[in-house]
Each structure stands twice: as C-alpha cells, then as structure tokens.
C-alpha cells in the first residue's frame, strides 16, 4: 500500500491537469459525477461540493439545489469561475478556494456534502470526512464517488503497481473501502446507507452516509 498523497503533490498535479482536465478526465468521470449529483438532488437544499474542480458538475444539478463549491487548486477554480460567469448555472451560489481539511463553514451548515473523486486524493482522508460530518446537518447526507481498491487478486496487484507510478499525477487507485467503514465505526452518528457500484463495469462506487444525530459531546 502507498501512503496518502501530500498536499504539495496534489497542488502541483492539478495545476498541470487544469488546462486539459475537462477534455481528458471529464468523459471518464461523467457517470460518477451524475450519480453523485442525482443523490445530492434527492436530498436538496444547501449542497457543498468538495473538490469542485473546473465546475464540470454544475449542469448535473440542474437548478434543483443551492450549490457552494470549494477546491484548493487555484488553476482549477479559475476555470470553474469562467464557467460560472456564463450565467447558465444560477443555482451555483459561491466558489471558494479552501482546504477540505479545515472547512470555513459553521457546523450543520449544509443539507448535503458531495465529494466526487476526492476522498482518495487528500492528505488525510479521515480528517476530511470529519469535516464533512461536522458541516452536514442531522438528517443530511455525505455523498462520495470514487474508485475503490479491489484488495484481492490480480486487480489489486495491478492497482498497487499503478499507484507507485502515478502519485506525481495526483492519482491514487489503491484506497480500500475498509478505511471508510473504520471511520464510520468511530462516528456512530454517521450511518452508511448505500454502497453501489456504478456502470459501466463498476469501476466507480457511490457511497452515501446519513447523519442521524448530533455527534455525542464526549466523542
């Protein structure tokens, strides 16, 4: 297993990705983006998208929610702001450059938090999940979409090999689902309500947590 990606690696990688991201990554991730947005629309209300990138997902929300987007990559956000300036996405209310490890929002500020292709690519995934849980209201949801590590067999071996060679590109294919379940076990207020492989081929997985109550004061 490789280590979690560090912030400098991610920032440098996505500065390089920004000019070509929409053309190269956009089509590959389309099914995951749409599935995450559909899940978020079912919750409605105030939605925070972590890792909003170039704003490729703006259209997927289709005016049914109030969207705030954050990303720590200035070059990616520059493209998102240009996309927003077209005036075609009035439901997107704000874009901020912000670190997902330290969200600058009060507790329970959002009805839903969405992180598409993000949680495997941050310096401290559990820390980011803690922040997601903090800013979502009781009854709200945290929606993740990611490729998750196969863990066994030939696919796992290929992912481990690939991971060692793609860190500088800001990619991390060997993140196991068990890290999410272990995090949830330490957060009894966060209930896993869905884990669903997405078409085609189940390469990506949709994961939904619901915040059932306020976190115990002693937690």
Automatic annotation (TrEMBL):
Q: Which UniProt keywords apply?
A: Methyltransferase, Transferase
List the CDD domains. Answer: AdoMet_MTases (cd02440)
Q: Where is the Methyltransferase type domain?
A: 48-143
Stored InterPro entries: Methyltransf_11 (IPR013216), Methyltransf_Superfamily (IPR050508), SAM-dependent_MTases_sf (IPR029063)
Give one GO term, molecular function aspect: S-adenosylmethionine-dependent methyltransferase activity
Q: Which GO terms describe its biological process?
A: methylation
Pfam families, per database record: Methyltransf_11
Q: Which domain of life does this protein belong to?
A: Bacteria
- Name this protein carries in UniProt: Class I SAM-dependent methyltransferase
The organism named in the record is: Segnochrobactrum spirostomi
């Amino acid at each position: 297993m490789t280590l979690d990606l560090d912030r400098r690696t991610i920032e440098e990688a996505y500065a390089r990705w920004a000019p070509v991201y929409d053309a190269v990554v956009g089509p590959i991730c389309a099914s995951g983006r749409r599935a995450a947005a559909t899940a978020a629309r079912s919750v409605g209300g105030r939605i925070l998208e972590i890792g909003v990138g170039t704003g490729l997902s703006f259209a997927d929300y289709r005016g049914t929610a109030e969207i705030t987007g954050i990303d720590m990559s200035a070059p990616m956000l520059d493209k998102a702001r240009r996309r927003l300036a077209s005036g075609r996405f009035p439901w997107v209310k704000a874009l901020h450059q912000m670190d997902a490890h330290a969200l600058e929002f009060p507790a329970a500020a959002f009805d839903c938090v969405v992180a598409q292709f993000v949680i495997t690519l941050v310096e401290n995934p559990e820390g980011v999940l803690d922040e997601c849980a903090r800013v979502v209201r009781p009854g709200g949801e945290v929606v993740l979409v990611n490729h998750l590590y196969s863990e066994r067999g030939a696919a796992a071996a290929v992912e481990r090999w690939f991971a060692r060679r793609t860190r500088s590109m800001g990619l991390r294919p060997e993140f196991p689902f068990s890290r999410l379940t272990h995090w949830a076990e330490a957060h009894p207020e966060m209930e896993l309500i869905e884990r669903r492989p997405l078409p085609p081929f189940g390469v990506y997985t949709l994961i939904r947590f619901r915040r059932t109550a306020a976190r115990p004061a002693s937690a």
